[in-house]
Fold this protein.
Amino acid sequence: MNQSTQDNQEPVDVVIMAAGKGTRMKSSLPKVLHRLGGRALVAHVIDTATRIGGRHIVVVTGHGAPEVEAALAGTMSGATPLFARQMPQLGTGHAMQQAIPLLPDDGTVLVLSGDVPLIDADTLRALVAESAGRRLALLTIRVADPKGYGRIVRVQGATDGADAESEGEVQAIVEEKDASEAQRAIREIYSGVMAVPARLLRAWLARLDNHNAQGEYYLTDIVGFATVDGVPVVAHRIEDALQVAGVNSPSQLAALERALQLRRAEQLMSQGVRLADPARFDLRGTLVCESDVEIDVNCVFEGAVSLGADVRIGANCVIANARIESGAVIHPFTHIDGEQAGVTIGAGARIGPFARLRPGARLGAEVHIGNFVEVKNSTLGNGAKANHLAYLGDATVGQRVNYGAGSITANYDGANKHRTIIGDDVHVGSNCVLVAPITIGAGGTVGGGSTITKSTEPGTLTVSRARQASFADWERPQKAPKKD
Ligand code: UD1
Ligand code: CA
């Protein structure tokens, strides 16, 4: 059950404005699709809207609308938000005019921006509570440099210093370009987030005009209408600037990324995870850790990753969609990506340095995978080892198998993939090619340098290579003397 029904409040309908161009990103990708912490900016906002129990979620699209709408299909654990197209973009009030016909009258409309990703669910709940089904609630913040923002104009004290600035009743929001010099000095600004009863908003949007310095329809003009209509306006002021920080440039995007990552790092450390350096840690999905996990510098985690107790991750690893059991050690520069199929690594396994585990790698307990070894869609039994320069694809490898340096499964015939089955306790020498489909019987040995095309019986030694020959007193050809 969602928050709004739990509290018996009115339903909350969310409108996320995302039609703007984002010129300063200087990118062909629509601004709200740029990624923060591995997820599109606007997807963070949708997640938060979902978390507070938003009934309808409308995204206003314009610039790059088809791309944005396609990217957000199924983004709400399978569900898709509603879209309202705004063409052309004539201002925030005009954006809301496109969205309001999609919403019923009985709710509270929460207005958010697709480029303000770190807004907190609790802040939004508090703002909706301030609106209380009958008031216009504005999320505001006091900043050192209010340049470019809409200023919160209060009945008294707009020029009387900081304290008076936040006491009088809110009368209007004045945009930078329309503001008098005195108004420009106001440091309390409108964050772009508001909560307002839908029935009031609908009537006010119908009254907007574009008679202002920018020739735009300003959503912020509804504050003046509320004052005229005797509807109370409340400012809910917060201190945490990160929550209302917008992304307009690559530099701002990078700054928010670091802030978000630091927050994620702090959260993990508070659970006991030991990060060598929280400033050199990147989580672009979810990371669940049991006790005494250690993570060295410059690791990147993507998708869903879980680490068992005492797992150690060396420096410079990239790990995505994997489950690593307790006590396993991942040495530096290892790349693990389970994609859809996932990767599982058994207890006490040792992986890397420079190993590559791909989708469907299922490694048992105490498995060793060494440098420049690639494993894809293969199961390795407990204690199996492939320590150097090898490939295991579409293979089922028994327990305690030793798979030699430079050996590979030839799993692909140009059209189909075939399986290789290696029984328990097999020893595959160095530089072997196992041409699938093939089975190496349990306890067997494959001599180094063999190309194996037929299955072998358990316990046998199989060698398949040219017989060695030596020629005595062999004289090597000489190079002809150089001419001038
Ligand atoms: C707006 C507010 C300003 C506030 C600031 C906070 C108005 C008139 N002004 O400024 O008081 O301090 O946000 O950041 O509302 N958008 C559309 N369609 C449009 C125009 C904008 O969807 O036609 C979207 C943008 O993509 C963005 C959001 O609305 O997500 C805010 O637009 P932006 O231009 O950044 O804000 P301002 O209008 O400058
Ligand atoms: Ca603008």
Summary: The first strand starts at residue 12 and ends at 18. Residues 298 and 316 are 5 Å apart (CA to CA). The chain has two domains: 3-244, 250-462. Confidence is low (pLDDT under 50) at residues 1-6.
